[in-house]
Write a structure and sequence with these properties.
Number of helices: 11
Strand content: under 5%
Structural class: mainly alpha
Largest sheet: none
CATH topology: MetI-like fold
CATH class: Mainly Alpha
Number of domains: 1
Helix content: over 70%
CATH superfamily: MetI-like
CATH architecture: Orthogonal Bundle
Number of strands: 0
Distance between the termini: 36 Å
Shape: elongated
Radius of gyration: 22 Å
Order of helices and strands: HHHHHHHHHHH
């Protein structure tokens, strides 16, 4: 019974354009997750130890070549996926852990609290995300947690705005009014009646923010505000590789850049397909 239902859902996904997008995105993400989890078994060399020859083009033994320090580019790309996922997930979890409860409480209470908190969140939201992350990262310094915090601040208003707007609408629904009438406490109303109805939207926002966080982290590392070398990081490798473009050492930039493009594309397609699946009326013609 379960297998038949699962097979029916898969066929329905494959037959829909949003489902194809979802599956392609999922496929790309699975590849990068495997790279991150099994990096020690996939990478042929240590990402922080020179292999000998410097600036070797892609060839047998070094399928993505080596950099100016003799590091194997393929091994650094593989291990770089760990850093990208780590920072993106930590930043997104911090942002969601602050933004979602704040949006729930403020959207439910309303009044002056709503005006003050919304004004603060809107001020953060309208500020260019990368510039804000650069400013915070410059104050906090390098490191996994510091960079994650710098990126998390940028995305807190996103969760707040999504949750608050939905709570403001849902709190006037009949089932919520009925819960109030029978004497349910605000904590119970928020956790049992409102939160389950707003969570599906946050799943889509979550996956989109992870993709954006990966790009922001790469931008910070490119500017020298990310993870300290020689830790493998795609943004840092891009920054270092651009110095050798004029020497026609293209592989130093192409492969880290391609990794960023593919993982962001995977998350974008996954979230877009998921959004259309959860909200089937989006793609309908009126």
């Amino acid at each position: 019974m379960i297998s038949e239902k699962l097979g029916k859902n898969i066929k329905q996904l494959i037959g829909d354009s949003s489902g194809v997008m979802f599956l392609i995105g999922l496929f790309l993400l699975v590849i990068f997750i495997i790279m991150a989890v099994f990096a020690p078994y996939i990478a042929p060399y240590s990402p922080i130890k020179p292999t000998g020859a410097q600036l070797l083009p892609p060839q047998v033994g070094h399928i993505m070549g080596t950099d100016n320090l003799g590091y194997d580019v393929f091994s650094r790309v593989i291990y770089g996926s760990r850093m990208a996922f780590s920072i993106a997930f930590i930043a997104t979890i911090i942002a969601a852990a602050i933004g979602i409860p704040t949006g729930l409480i403020v959207g439910y209470v309303g009044g002056k609290l709503d005006s003050v908190v919304t004004m603060i969140m809107d001020s953060i939201y309208t500020f260019p995300g990368l510039i804000l992350a650069i400013a915070i990262a410059a104050m906090l310094g390098q490191g996994l947690i510091n960079i994650s915090l710098s990126i998390a601040v940028v995305y807190i208003p996103t969760y707040y705005r999504v949750i608050r707007s939905q709570v403001a609408t849902i709190k006037s629904e009949l089932y919520v009014e009925g819960a109030k009438a029978i004497g349910a406490k605000p904590k119970t109303i928020l956790s049992k009646y409102i939160l389950p109805n707003v969570l599906p939207s946050t799943i889509v926002v979550l996956s989109m923010n992870i993709a954006d966080a990966i790009m922001t982290e790469a931008g910070l590392s490119f500017l020298g505000l990310g993870i300290a070398p020689p830790t493998p990081d795609w943004g840092y490798d891009l920054s270092k590789g651009q110095q050798f473009i004029l020497q026609n050492d293209w592989w130093l930039v192409v492969f880290p850049g391609l990794a960023i493009i593919l993982i962001v594309l995977g998350f974008s397609m996954f979230s877009e397909g998921l959004n259309e699946y959860l909200n089937p009326n989006i793609g309908e013609k009126r």
